[in-house]
Design goal:
about 70 residues; mainly alpha; about 75% helix
């Protein structure tokens, strides 16, 4: 089997974006069940799940109290 390097690079980029989205989703506010559903969608339907999450997903991220102290 011969894979084009372009496809490998695109797959790695998609994986990195997925990991970023899951981390951001994990820190977001909202019900755990909603976040869980979004994680399942992002993992099992990668490209369409990321697009749907970017358009309709949770927008607020819980403020980390440690980061607030660091800003002062």
């Amino acid at each position: 089997m011969h894979f084009e390097p372009t496809w490998i690079v695109l797959a790695v980029v998609l994986l990195l974006i997925e990991l970023w989205a899951i981390n951001r989703l994990r820190k977001s506010e909202g019900k755990a069940s909603t976040r869980g559903v979004w994680m399942v969608v992002i993992v099992f339907v990668p490209l369409l799940g990321l697009i749907a999450w970017a358009v309709a997903g949770p927008k607020q991220i819980a403020d980390n109290p440690r980061s607030a102290q660091a800003r002062q």
